[in-house]
Amino acid sequence: MDAEVQATPTTPTVREAGEFAVVAAVTARLPQSALVLLGPGDDAAVVRAPDGRVVVTTDVLVEGVHFRRDWSSALEVGRKAAAQNLADVAAMGAVPTSVVVGLAAPADLPVAWAESLADGLRTECAVVSVSVVGGDMTRAGQVVISVTALGDLEGRDPVTRSGARPGDLVVVAGRLGRSAAGLALHLRGDAGLLQRHAELAAAHRVPAPPYAAGPALARAGASALLDTSDGLLQDLGHVARGSGVRLELDAAALEDDVRALAACAEELGEDPWAWVLGGGEDHALAGCVPAGTALPPGVRVVGRVVAGSPEVVVPGVARPGSTGWDSYR
Questions:
Q1: Residue 88 is labelled as binding a ligand
Q2: Which domain holds residue 50?
Q3: Is 325 annotated as a binding residue?
Q4: pLDDT band of 11, cuts 50, 70, 90
Q5: In a domain, 1, yes or no
Q6: How far is residue 137's CA from residue 103's CA, in Å, rounded to a whole number?
Q7: Whether the model pTM is above 0.70
Q8: Burial classification of residue 89, based on how many CB atoms lie within 10 Å of its CB (0-12 exposed, 13-18 middle, 19 or more buried)
Q9: Residue 42 known to bind ligand
Q10: 220 with 195, same domain?
Q11: Is 161 among the annotated ligand-binding positions?
């Protein structure tokens, strides 16, 4: 159990408090944005949709698969749960408008943990000025969090995975490999390593997606875009197959990411290239833009699109054994 939140006589469990008291305690911590016409308290929320179309995405986080309570505080889990969904909205070139959350939890979960989870959700949603507008809660043998995020396209077409064309440039916004390095540190469980590389360990617990880059790239005319939740090679592979093109990445353009991980990789006996190319959960955005596009701040060119078989290659770099996350492997 999360060492920061233990049930005590003054901090009851969800069984002791009851579902509706927990829901009331959680929703009291969730302020509503100007986009919300009707927030928590009714059978459903009502949210403005200025564009007339709604972008929808959902993700599920399962304790022991996507997070561990002995590694992450409830606040960190809440931030991570919100971030991976808000990043998906940004990857469509949209701006987030609201979030709904489902929580399944054991009966002995402290109410304070659920409250801290709500604080994390609120904190991450505040980064993009949206709010949690509702959700559901039920009993389960482990903590499971389902988040659905809604977004608005602001009159633009969605940016999909299938629009890349030969001659385009491959671009990335955000950091690569940090979460994978942090995961390796937590799995090793060495307190000294975790302290020496605290920033990388924290990057696994709480990602930092470049939310603004998604709409900015859409306004700049991006031809393809996605969230690198599963790993750069694996996710760009979706673009290659969806667009029917070959993506050639420039190893030199990724050297800064590799150098940032080199010291940690050396201590762990790992290859930093494997983290940069195959590590997920940084929630960087990757995609393609026509050559000559004025790139938004924080966006860098990492390769090019050419005609050929649909694949992603990095000349001069050995392909890692794993090119990304697969929930069933």
A1: yes
A2: 14-152
A3: yes
A4: confident
A5: no
A6: 5
A7: yes
A8: buried
A9: no
A10: yes
A11: yes
